[in-house]
Amino acid sequence: MDHIKQNPLVKTLGFNRIVLCLVLLGMYGFFAIFADHFVSYNRLLSAMNYAYFLGFLALGVTFVIATGGIDFSIGPVMFCAAIMSGYLLTHYHWPLWVCLITSIMIGMLYGVLNGYLVAYKGVPSFITSMAIMQISKGIASIFTKAQSVSWPQLAQENGWYRNLVKMKFGTTYIPVGLIILLAIAIICSIVLNKTKMGRYFLSLGSNKEAVRLSGVDVKKWEMIAYIICGTLAGIAAIFFVAAYTTVQPGYGDQYNNEAIAGCVMGGTSMAGGLASIGGTFIGVMIISILQEGILAIGLNKNYQLVITGIIVITAVFLDVVSRRRKN
Amino acid sequence: MGEVILTMKDIDKSFPGVHALDNVSFELQRGEVHALMGENGAGKSTLMKVLTGIYKKDSGTITYDGKDVEFTNPREAQQAGIVIVHQELNMLSHLTVAQNIFIGCEYMKGTMIDDARMNAESTKLFERLNINIDPTETMSKLTVGKQQMCEIAKAISHEAQVIVFDEPSAALTESEVSELFEIIRDLKKKDIGIIYITHRMDEVKVITDRVSVMRDGAYVGTLISENSTKNDIINMMVGRVIYEEPKTASKVPKDAPVVLKVEHLNAGRLVKDVSFELHKGEILGFSGLMGAGRTETARAIFGADIKESGDIYIDGKKVEIHSPKDAVKCGIGYLSEDRKRFGIVVQRTVAENSTMAYLENFMRGIFINKKNERMEAEKYVGSLAIKTPSVNQLVVDLSGGNQQKVVLAKWLVRDCDILIFDEPTRGIDVGAKSDIYKLMNELVKEGKSIIMISSEMPEVLRMSDRIVVMCEGRKSGELRIEEATQEKIMHLATMEN
User: Fold this and answer.
1) What pLDDT score does B242 carry?
2) What class is the A41-320 domain?
């Protein structure tokens, strides 16, 4: 075991991430064998539809978890942003680009509110994000009078935003969404590992008081983590509707859990101080392939919940065990 | 006094980097109150933790009631009859007195908890102790003194044969202390052996039969309380070797400018109207007993806690410090007494910790210049002799003394002109200690100024140019090094108002 860990390739990529990649490949192989017609480009594109919005949610919440907090509101906030901006587009006929920016702004505003309460008022993030989850669901319902909202199709007027997910190029589709998600993931990774902001996020997740006593404005940085998280939820909203068209008020909770599951699988510690953007990315891919595969072998969505739960527990358990052995 | 109930022989215990107990022996008789004294870090608490199974000893034997024992946790010790009454009370403040006393061994009636019986049993216990507490009262409504008596009652309920009091009087008022002494005398009559850890010299004569002294993790000796004087005990406590030339006269010129002036500082219960001046190139010692308000004063100056009133001047100019960020901008660095909680970020590397207070100096655009960061950290790893395989080592893997040096490096990287060192050598080994003393002397030579809070009297006397003594939140006196003696400091530190 140890000599594998000393391998330079393994060292740079990280042992856990390699295990995670193997899990991903194994899962893909499993479905390739047991599900009909699973190995196809269209299947992958379909699986990626799920990965885009979930990816943005998970990237955002990785920052929050790095600071030692948690955000349970991202799913409903994403829905709230998608519903409100979609309603502005379809009922009030605002220009499309304004609606897209509005969606991002709505996510950001929830992030500001959440971050302010956590960082400056000392309310536990568990509580604030639970409350904001409810608030965002309520606001979305009130705004649309509890109607669902359908964004335009590609062929319809204002449908070009759908190219953000996949663009037709000749006879094939290019997964534009994957390129954007990857680009943002790389930016997130740089922010987390190379900049002052990321350093402070991870440090205050590990020992906030020591960072404060080093003369760092910890409240400001903690709040920024939530704002980033909210903003990415606003972006996720755009990718959700670009893939799935219709959003219904009152839902979205499931996606928090899946996003957080993605982070945790990827090696981000719920205790704060340790986070991996690459791990989160792979975690999201696992969940996306899983949900596509479950549908492909003809099981319903509930099986996906069970399996995701098991994977999360296993990942965290292995993490705890390896850390205990270290001590 | 009677037969021996407890013997600890040649107890040895090491932690990474610290030899905490060095062949310590200790004996307790039935019906005896045996004081255990020593400075902070002398090893008293560690010894008691070894006794009750919180720590596992490296070697040595414990004989209790004629049998060799080795407890693996406090619960086992408790069942055998050895109980600690902790300094910080372990009470569940929302439960009632009786529920607290019987926590973990509740009386049951079928599947339900039998509160009525627990209340009745508690009343019986209190009667035995001649104290008057309502067992149905919520714990948080009691005074600290009464809470402590509940702890004692809890100890008795376990049929304790040995009770360890860890600085029981520290948080009590005078009348509560005399009430406590009554109870202890009563316990004595019941042939219970009592180990009494204390810092208060005057209590030794009043309540104890014998006194054992520890120093630097080693046993120094035992005296009969009646025949010993305060000086005897102090001599045993402090007769240590200090690895830096003693200071007999201040080297700070009389006309050295005042770099920090604090006027009428008030903050909370433990900082009352504190005023003092710090000169350039000076080490200003802060002495006093535990809970005298020294750390609180430092934290208020540094902006870590809210201050109610008072002015701070740096180089003659009044400054507003509302947060550590403001303080660091003013050139103040604070090395906390509790480095684990307030000093280091354990999950980060040595390099990352050392630039924590001055990260803006290591930026290239929006990116951290990791090469510069590493080079700067390596410089201090060298000059402070930090024992670490590399600057990329996580701080969690370092020993206590080396962690402390990393915190020091943090403030040296920032190049603070005013450094507040709060117990800079607590819990670290002698080698690291002398390194830190040397470093402090070098720093003041460079023109920096240091406030050193220390509970170790010899440290204060040998490092300081001037000494401020605090007592119960007030500055009770100020001594020049030329005139300062342990007795004078002790006198000021224990001044009764």
Assistant:
1) 46
2) mainly alpha
Q: Which residues pair with B14 in a beta bridge?
A: B19
Instruction: Judge contact between B402 and B427, C-beta under 8 A.
Output: no
Q: Within a 13 Å sphere around the CA of B191, how many CA atoms are in the beta-carbon half?
A: 6
| C-alpha–C-alpha distance, residues A211 and B356, integer Å | 7
Query: B223 phi and psi, to 5 degrees?
Result: -125, 155
The three-point CA angle A20-A23-A24 to 5° equals: 90
Candidate from B325, B341, B356 with C-beta closest to A217: B325
- Report which DSSP code applies to B339: I
- Residue (of B225, B224, B237, B156) closest to B190 by Cα position: B156
CA distance B333 to chain A (A): 8
Q: What is the pLDDT of residues A147-169, one digit of tens each?
A: 999 999 988 888 899 988 888 88
Residue B158 CA to residue B211 CA, distance in Å, equals 26
Q: Which helix H or strand E contains A20, and what residues bound it?
A: helix A15-34
Question: What's the rounded Cα separation, in Å, for the pair A304 and B353?
Answer: 42
Q: Which of A192, A213, A319 would best serve as a mutation to test chain B binding (most B beta carbons within 10 A)?
A: A213
The region that residue B53 occupies, defined by phi over 0 for left and psi between -120 and 50 for alpha, beta otherwise, is left
Which pTM was predicted? Answer: 0.78
Domain ranges of chain A: 41-320
d(CA B133, CA B100): 13
Rg (alpha carbons) of chain B, rounded to whole number:
25
Most confident of B171-185, B237-251, B404-418, B431-445: B404-418
Report chain B's terminal Cα–Cα distance, integer Å.
36
CB atoms within 10 A of CB B289: 18
> Which pLDDT score is estimated for B253?
84
Domains of chain B: 4-238 (3.40.50.300), 258-493 (3.40.50.300)
The whole-angstrom separation of Cα B413 and Cα B356 is 9
Residue B96 pairs in a beta bridge with B138
Q: Give pLDDT, residue B441.
A: 92
pLDDT given at position A12: 60
* Strand bridging mode B193-197 / B162-166: parallel
Q: Yes or no: say if B219 and B25 are a contact pair by the CB < 8 Å rule.
A: yes
Cβ pair B304:A274 closer than 8 A: no
Average pLDDT over residues B492-497: 70
Spatial separation of the C-alpha atoms in residues A304 and B66, rounded to whole Å: 63
Q: Give the DSSP per-residue string, B198-266.
A: -S-HHHHHHH-SEEEEEETTEEEEEEEGGG--HHHHHHHHH----SSPPP-S--S-TTPPEEEEEEEEE
Contact B329 A215 (CB under 8 A): yes
Integer CA distances (angstroms), B232 to B36, B384, B482, in order = 14, 37, 24
Say if A118 is an interface residue toward chain B (CB within 8 Å): no
Tokens at residue B142, please? 């009691």
Tell me whether residue B59 is exposed, middle or buried, using C-beta atoms within 10 angstroms of its C-beta: 0 to 12, 13 to 18, 19 or more.
exposed
In this structure, is the dihedral angle defined by the CA atoms of residues A48, A52, A55 and A59, taken in order, positive or negative? positive
* ipTM attached to this prediction: 0.83
Element (H, E) at B439: helix B430-445
pLDDT per position as a tens digit, A214-262: 999 999 999 999 999 999 999 999 999 999 999 999 889 889 989 999 9
Contact B346 A207 (CB under 8 A): yes
Closest CA of chain B from A138, distance in Å: 36
Q: How far apart are the first and last CA of chain A?
A: 18
Minimal CA separation from A183 to chain B, in Å: 18
